[in-house]
Every structure is written in C-alpha cells, then in structure tokens.
Design a protein that fits this description.
The protein has 239 residues and is mainly α. It has helices spanning 4-15, 25-33, 41-54, 59-64, 67-75, 81-99, 111-118, 126-135, 146-155, 164-175, 183-199, 219-230. Bound molecules: iron/sulfur cluster.
Length: 239
Amino acid sequence: MVKLNKLVSRLAKEYGEPEPLPARGPFELVMWENACYLLPDDRRAMVFQMLREQVGMNATALAAATDEVLLPIAKLGGMRPEVRVFRWREIARITLSQFGGDLDQILSGSPAAAKKALKGFPNIGDPGAEKILMFCGMGTGLPLESNGLRVLVRVGYGCEQKDYGRMYRSVQEALAPEVPQSAEACARTFVLLREHGKEICKTNEPLCFRCPVLDLCGYPRKNMLETAKRKPARDLGLR
Ligand code: SF4
C-alpha cells in the first residue's frame, strides 16, 4: 500500500508547493466557491478579483451593489449568471442577518457548529464546508473533491464504485490512519491531489507514462488486465 506522505511529497516535487488561495476567511471562501460554474481556476480567480475591486469583498458592499455592477461580472463566471447574482446576494443577506456581517465569528465556535453555519450558504454541502474550514485552519480531516478522490482510488485507497458517496466513504476509511494532523498539511495534500487529478491522472486516459507516482500505483497494470479481459485476443495483437 502506498503511503500518503510519500505520494504527496512526490506530487510537491512535480507541481511545486501550492500557492495560497486568493480567498481568505470563511466569507471570501464561500464567495470563492460561488464565483464560477464549471470553469478553470484562472477564470474563478479573475471573477473573484473583479468582485473584490469593483464591489468589495464584504457582505455590506455586496448587498448594496446593483445588477448593473454584478451581472457583467457574473457573466464571466459561466452559465446562468442571474442565478449567480442571486446567490451572491443570498451570501450577503445571510452574513448580515445571521452573523452581523462578520462570518469570521464562526471560527471561534466548535468545528461542528461552524460546519453547520457554512452549510446554510448556497452551494455549500458537507465536503464544501469541510474544505472551507480546512483552508481557515480549522479542519477536522481531509476533505476530497473529485480529482483527488480519483487519484487516491487509483493508487489503492478504498475501492472504485458507481455510487460516489460510497466510494468517498471507502477512501476516507482507508485514509483515516494517515490523515495529516494539521489543517495546513491537509490543505497542502488537498491541493496537490487535485492538481494531479487535473493535470495527469485525468478521468479518461490518465497520462501514466509521465506520472511521478507511477511506481507506487497499481492502476496501469489493473487497467491493462481489465482491458485484456474485455477485448478479444486478436485486438491486443496476441493472435
Ligand atoms: S500511474 Fe496513472 S493512474 Fe496511477 S496515479 Fe499516476 S496517472 Fe494516475
């Protein structure tokens, strides 16, 4: 079985140490999650920066901004910009009405209470809330998004399943003894696994031939055997 810390240090050599996110603190991280829909990170960063410069990255400024200001920015964030503007306003409204405009206060309570508070915001479920808390230094584990999950399944944690939730839980169980203690180390692991899943260990046709953890991963051999089982021998040039 591959060791998580060995995997992560190889990935750090390949991709470099992760840069800090442009978003800091729970309010900004909720906005970061809602900045775009299905677009690359550089577009998310651009939309986020425009909101910061043209609106102000706080609930009061966001609540006061007009459609004329918000909609053109939301259009850069992908499909259904009106929905995005609605969500930004909801984020501002909830922050002002339930947290007095200061969402940082959730970080002084328990992690469970903070997670519950975050799940009250648009687009934030369990993994999203755990991720935000991790980036705020208050993590309670290693949340995973789809890229990181795929990498870990392929290298041997948990088992691949059609049901995403069951697969997620199987990986978390297998990973539990090795999850880093600090939120900072978890965040570094999260970012590097995600990067690897996006750049090399892609959903279809992973680029195993240039993978920095090829020698630690059983997937290429397993995949070759499964392909061989599916294809007639003549297609594989065996007869
Ligand atoms: S060897 Fe292939 S499947 Fe395994 S981690 Fe690398 S890219 Fe992913």
